Amino acid sequence: MIKKIGPYRLLSDTVTRRLFICFAAISSILISFVVHNEVYGVENISEFEWQKRIILILSERSTDDDIALLQHADDEIRDRHIYWFVLQGKRVISNYPGQLDQKFVLETKKYFRNDGNNVLLIGKDGGIKNRSSSLELGTLFALIDTMPMRQAEIGDRNAN
Fold this sequence. Notes:
Layout: E1 2-5, E2 8-11, H1 13-40, E3 53-59, H2 64-72, H3 74-79, E4 82-88, E5 91-94, H4 103-111, E6 119-122, E7 128-132, H5 137-146, H6 148-159
Parallel strand pairs: 3-4
Antiparallel strand pairs: 1-2, 3-6, 4-5, 6-7
């Protein structure tokens, strides 16, 4: 029931309580999703689909040079919406700022087998865009810059 006080209409106490309960329920559901991801972390690369491009390096040997190269190119990587992951045995080195679940390495290695082409570029759509045996950032950046989604990002940035 709606009460009218002067030019204003007020909702009845019952309607107000119901709206508050609905708002509280929706808020708690949203908070639980956020807490789940922060507590448990990312389990699978597919969780980045439509948000980030991925450079994935699968290696059993030392990749210190690759890591240094990726860290040095931080501005270019950030500009192209890239997270990179170096999987070395059970160890993960990355520019991803959040937590990774323990399943992350197992799931990633199971899905992306190391066939000798241990550097993969994964697009925002989740598709593998490039495979190579070594990290060539210039080549990867050039490839990314030709992608339609990247062209749209550049256009949006130039419009602002």
